[in-house]
Amino acid sequence: MRKIYLVRHGDPDFPDGIKLCIGTTDIALGPLGRMRGALAGAELASAGLSGVFSSPLSRACQTAGYISPGFSFLEDFREAYEGDWEGLPFDEIRSRWPELYSRRGSDPGLLPPGSEPYGSRSSRFSSGLSLALESTSGDIAAVSHSGVIKAFLGGVMNISAREFMALPLPYGSVTEIWENGGVFSVVSVGIVPHPTLTDGLCETLMSCAGTPPEVISHCRTSAAAADELCAALKCSGIALDGGLIRSAALLHDISRTLPEHAAVGAGWLDALGYPDQAEIIRRHMDCPGDSVGEAAVVYIADKLTIGSQRVSLRERYEKSESKCMTAEARCAHEARRKQAYGIAEKINKICGKDIIQ
How far is residue 351's CA from residue 111's CA, in Å, rounded to a whole number? Predict the structure, then answer.
C-alpha cells in the first residue's frame, strides 16, 4: 500500500486583488499562498516522500518547492481549461452568463461553456498519477489544482459531478489517498495543514510574507523579551502559554511594511488557522486589556524593543516622543505611554520586583 498526498496549491496573487476564473491561466502565489505552501511543506516533512510531482503552472510549482526543491513536473497535473470563462473576473462572468452562474450556485457540477469535460480531467490526472507511481517506489505528493483533483476523486469515490465539485478543497489543503494494486481509496479530503509554529516555521512564514531582515531581527529580540517575561510570571504563579507567546511575538510584525499591519498580519494568521496568534497580533499595537495574559506579554515585549535592541520603557517613550510634532500627536503618545506603564506596573506587582523599568 502506498500513500499519495494530493496538495492543492496556495492562494494566487490575483491582479489588484480581483478574483478571476483561472484554469490554465498562469498566476503566481501571493504572500498568503506562499505561507500555505510552507505549512504544507512542514506538514509533509516527516512523511518520507519518495517523490513530489507538480503541475507546470506557477502557483503549483511554487507550492511544490516548499515540499521538496527537487520536485518534478507532470503536464497531466495541469488545471483544466475553463472555456469561455477562462481568465475572466467573476463579476464579469456573473454579468454575461447570469442564468448559468446562478444555476452553478446550487449545482457546482455545471461546467462553463467550452471547458474541458470532467471525464478528460479525471483520466488525464489518473495518467499523471500512474507515471508518478511508476517512477517511484514509496509514498508521493502531487501538487495540482481543485478542478482536476476533484474530477479524479469523483471517479475514485463514484459520485456525481454535483457531489465531487462540492467537495471542500481549500487552498493549500492536503487530500490523502491510498493505492494498493492499482486501486485507489480516499482516506481524507481537503485537510488544511496546521503544524506547530516552531521558530523555524515562523521565520519561514516571515520570509514568505516578504518581511524585511531588520524586522525579522526585531521580532527575534521581542520574542526573547517575551520569553523572559513569561518565565518571570511563571515563577510568580502565573502560568501562561509560552509557545503561543513566542510564536505570536515572532510573527507580530510579519506584515510590518504594509498599511494597518497589525490587522493584515492578524488576517493572515486567521486565514492560516492560527486564531490565538492572530488575536495577539491584532492587539499588539494597543492596550490588550486589563488582564496580564499572553497578549499583554507580547505587547510589552514589543515596547521593550527598538529595532533589534532591548530598551527600557523609559527609553522607548523618550525616543518616540521626540518624533511627535503636534499637540495631537503628543497627546496620543502620552495615552500610549500610560497604557504601557499600566501593564508594566501590573506585571511588576505580580513578580514582586521591577522586572520592567
Answer: 64
258 near 267, Cβ under 8 Å? Answer: no
493549500: which residue's cell? 172
Strand partners of residue 3: 178
Q: How far apart are CA 234 and CA 236, in angstroms?
A: 5
Nearest to 335 by CA among 346, 321, 323: 321
Grid cell of 96 as nine digits: 454575461
Q: Return the amino acid letter for 56.
A: P
Longest pairwise C-alpha distance within the chain: 76
Mean pLDDT of 254-268: 97
Cell of 4: 499519495
Residues 281 and 265 sit within 8 Å (Cβ to Cβ): yes
Which residues 6+ apart lie within 8 Å of 16 measured at CB? none
In angstroms, rounded to a whole number, what is the distance separating the alpha carbons of residues 148 and 151?
Answer: 5
Q: Which residues of 204-243 are buried (b: 16+ CB within 10 A; e: fewer)?
A: bbbebbebeeebbebbbbbbbbbbebbebbeeeeeebebe
Q: End-to-end alpha-carbon separation of the chain, Å?
A: 61
User: Half-sphere exposure (CA, 13 Å, Cβ side) for 96?
Assistant: 10
- Are 173 and 190 within 8 A, CB to CB? yes
Which domains are seen in the chain, by residue range? 2-191 (3.40.50.1240), 199-351 (1.10.3210.10)
| Number of Cβ within a 10 Å radius of residue 309 | 11
- How is residue 83 annotated by DSSP? G
Which helix (H) or strand (E) segment holds residue 125: the answer is helix 118-134
Look at residue 275 in the predicted model and tell me its pLDDT.
Answer: 98
Distance CA 254, CA 264 (A): 9
Distance separating alpha carbons of residues 154 and 186, to the nearest angstrom: 10
Query: What is the rounded average pLDDT of the residues 186-190?
Result: 98
Q: Read off the pLDDT band of 333 (50, 70, 90).
A: confident
The contacts of residue 94 (CB under 8 Å, 6+ apart) are 101
